[in-house]
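Data deposition worksheet. Section B asks for the primary sequence of the deposited chain exactly as it was used as input, without tags or linkers unless they were present during the calculation. Section C holds the resulting structure in token form. Section D is free text for depositor observations; keep each observation to a single sentence. Incomplete worksheets are returned to the depositor.
Section A, Depositor: J.P.
Section B:
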Amino acid sequence: MNDRAKTGKAGEESAAAYLKSKGYEVLIRNYRYKHAEIDLIVRKGSFIVFVEVKTRSYSFYGEPEAFVDSRKAATVIRAAEQYTFENKYEGNIRFDIVSVKTGINPEIVHFEDAFY
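Section C:
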């Protein structure tokens, strides 16, 4: 596993731990449908939340969440549609972003209802 993959994996672990500490239940990690991937699928209350995790070691080129563009959002939405279809889920859904900065001053920021 290269350094970039290790950073991403560590970010997903941090995001999952953070969400658990906030009362979320992690249902699935790295759900795949065709070429799309959802980093985390979690539940809180009556919502299933599809979470895109963005991790950066530094923010020289911008904050991690800025790297979730409309194209990435569209692929997450397609995968979420497949997940809800496969599981016959008809309840509330939401799309969140968890931004993880590693390094000297690690930081996690959770953006609820980030796109749709």
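Section D:
The first helix runs from residue 3 to 21.
Residues 3-111 form a domain with the Trna Endonuclease; Chain: A, domain 1 fold (CATH 3.40.1350.10).
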